[in-house]
């Protein structure tokens, strides 16, 4: 990723505290926070603390750090059903060029059961 993009990356700024966020869990490698435009209550994002654009740029050890966080958030949100989503590149609807995993709880009413 070009240095220019790194300097302007909103998620890098969130990690550094330059842009406020509602932080959830944090590890040495990962940061997680609530999405500013949630598609459901509790919609969260898990990101690496270093800049990378797409998932294939991440080492396997990062994925081993991120997935348990996504799992913990999904459990903590209390939704029986949920999505873990991850977009890579414009054609795949990636809008923020800092790799991120969406954790999207599906409250029962969204399944027509509430
Ligand atoms: P993408 O389409 O790239 O997979 O998703 C990017 C996500 O980042 C969107 O769901 C959007 O609401 C979220 N987002 C964009 N800017 C900010 C921000 O400044 N703060 C937070 N918390 N989320 C953001
Ligand atoms: Zn970044």
TrEMBL record:
Q: Which GO terms describe its biological process?
A: nucleotide metabolic process
Which residue spans adopt a coiled-coil conformation according to this UniProt entry?
none
- Residues the record marks as active site: 100
- Motif stretch (Histidine triad motif): 98-102
Could you name the domain of life of the organism this protein comes from? Eukaryota
**Can you name one GO molecular function term for this protein?**
catalytic activity
Cite the HIT domain residue spans from the record. Answer: 10-113
* Name the UniProt record assigns to this protein: HIT-like domain-containing protein
What species is given as this protein's source? Mycena belliarum
Quote the range of the complete protein represented.
Answer: 3 to 116 of 140
């Amino acid at each position: 990723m070009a240095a220019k993009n790194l300097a302007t990356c909103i998620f890098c700024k969130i990690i550094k505290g330059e842009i406020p966020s509602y932080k959830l869990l944090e590890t040495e490698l990962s940061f997680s926070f609530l999405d500013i435009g949630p598609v459901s209550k509790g919609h969260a994002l898990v990101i690496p603390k270093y800049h990378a654009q797409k998932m294939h740029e991440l080492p396997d050890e990062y994925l081993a750090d991120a997935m348990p966080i996504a799992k913990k958030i999904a459990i903590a949100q209390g939704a029986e059903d949920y999505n873990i989503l991850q977009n890579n590149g414009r054609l795949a609807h990636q809008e923020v060029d800092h790799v991120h995993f969406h954790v999207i709880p599906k409250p029962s009413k969204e399944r027509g059961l509430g």
